Amino acid sequence: MDITHLIEQYGYVALFLGCLAEGETFTLLGGVAAHEGLLHYGLVILVAMAGGILGDTALFFLGRYYGANILKKFKKHQKQIDKANRLIRKKPVLFVIGVRFMYGLRIIGPIIIGSSRLKPQKFMLLNVIGAMLWAVIFVSLGYVGGQVIAPWLHKLDHHLKQIFWVALIVALVWGARMWFKRRAARQPDND
Question: What pTM was computed for the model?
Answer without folding.
Answer: 0.73
